[in-house]
Design a protein that fits this description.
This is Phenylalanine--tRNA ligase alpha subunit. It catalyses: tRNA(Phe) + L-phenylalanine + ATP = L-phenylalanyl-tRNA(Phe) + AMP + diphosphate + H(+). Its EC number is 6.1.1.20. Its main location: cytoplasm. The protein is built from eleven helices and nine strands. By secondary structure, the chain is an alpha+beta fold. It folds into two domains: about 90 residues; about 230 residues, 2-Layer Sandwich (BirA Bifunctional Protein, domain 2), CATH 3.30.930.10. Strand 6 and strand 7 form a beta hairpin. Helix 2 runs antiparallel to helix 4 and helix 5 crosses helix 10. The N and C termini lie far apart (about 85 Å).
């Protein structure tokens, strides 16, 4: 029986060395080491041996079995290493090939302008504050000196959701909310960017557009502070040579009120088709905060003053980049954004 085990070991060694695949090796593992394998078959014949021979043959059978297991393990490592080398050879990347060019995205010009405007106001000490796009009538109208009977409500075609709630027509409600949260504390100095909604749709108006409104409340605030702020804003956005002018106007929430013009960025004030040969282009509305608005927000108009202004982000972008139709910003045409890759 010892000779039989030696013969099995010799044949197994040759066959395991000759195995070329893991599948072949596994078959040999089963052939020699499985429950019905050749080693097991030898062990089942142990009953025919004398009691003295059984432990000797049993021990040798286990040694042969261990040797075959080691041969299988060693060959398995060799085959796996060979298989890995073949995969690496087949999957080699030719680094001399030209790379695939990736498309680079670009920000919408409105995003670029909005971020720049926020940076300008933050550099002047303003806090950026946002508010809800769905407002109630009180914050959107009444607190801003626009009661239900006020004729100025007709100036803003409003999208109503219910009788009480609407899509805000300006970001001015953020000013009221901020002042109420301050509970009379000074100073108040905020800029509130965001989307607003009105029933407009033509080359210079859109039913959805963006504003950034500013509010400053403190003691001894004057119209001169407002003009200086807006002049600095215009120069930082359009160039240090820019000038502004204020024309009397009317807004329910400011008194006095003004329309603010900037010297034309196309002709430098000499007159062209963009400015209708006047040398000036309207850019925003502003004024001193109305006493009724201060009262509604918990401030005493005899003690504090303030100014407010509202700027259309699309309006600034159209002037800055020479865009004629506001709807181009919302068309979804990727060619618009491609022009602004890199900022």
């Amino acid at each position: 029986m010892r000779d039989k085990l030696n013969s099995i070991l010799k044949i197994a060694t040759n066959e395991i060395d000759g195995a070329n695949t893991l599948e072949q090796l596994n078959d040999l593992r089963v052939k020699y080491l499985g429950k019905k394998g050749e080693i097991t078959a030898v062990l089942r014949q142990m009953g025919s041996l004398s009691p003295e021979e059984r432990p000797v043959v049993g021990k040798y059978a286990n040694e042969v079995k261990e040797q075959i297991q080691e041969l299988v393990c060693d060959r398995e490592k060799e085959l796996k290493q060979k298989e890995m080398e073949q995969k690496l050879t087949q999957e080699t990347i030719d680094i001399t090939l030209p790379g695939v060019k990736r498309n680079i995205g670009g920000l919408n010009p409105l995003t670029i302008v909005k971020r720049k405007m926020e940076e300008v106001f933050m550099s002047m000490g303003y806090e950026i504050v946002e508010g809800p796009e769905i407002e109630n009538e009180y914050f959107n109208f009444e607190a801003l000196n626009l009661p239900s009977t006020h004729p100025a409500r007709d100036m803003q075609d409003t999208f109503y959701i219910t009788k009480e709630f609407l899509l805000r027509t300006h970001t001015s409600p953020v000013q009221i909310r901020t002042m109420l949260n301050k509970q009379g504390k000074l100073p108040v100095k905020i800029a509130s960017p965001g989307r607003v909604f009105r029933k407009d749709d033509d080359p210079t108006h859109s039913p959805i557009f963006q504003q950034i409104e500013g509010l400053v409340i403190d003691k001894d605030i004057t119209m001169a502070d407002l003009k200086g702020t807006l002049l600095l804003f215009a120069q930082k956005m359009f160039g240090t040579n820019k000038k502004i002018r204020l024309r009397p106007s009317y807004f329910p929430f400011t008194e006095p009120s003004a329309e603010v013009d900037i010297s034309c960025i196309m002709c430098e004030g000499n007159g062209c088709s963009t400015c209708s040969d006047t040398g000036w282009v309207e850019i925003l509305g502003a004024g001193m905060v109305h006493p009724n608005v201060l009262k509604n927000a918990g401030y005493d108009p005899s003690e504090v003053k303030g100014f407010a202004f509202g700027i259309g982000i699309e309006r600034v972008a159209m002037l800055k980049y020479g865009v004629k139709d506001i709807r181009d910003f919302y068309s979804g045409d990727i060619r618009v954004s491609k022009q602004f890759i890199g900022g």
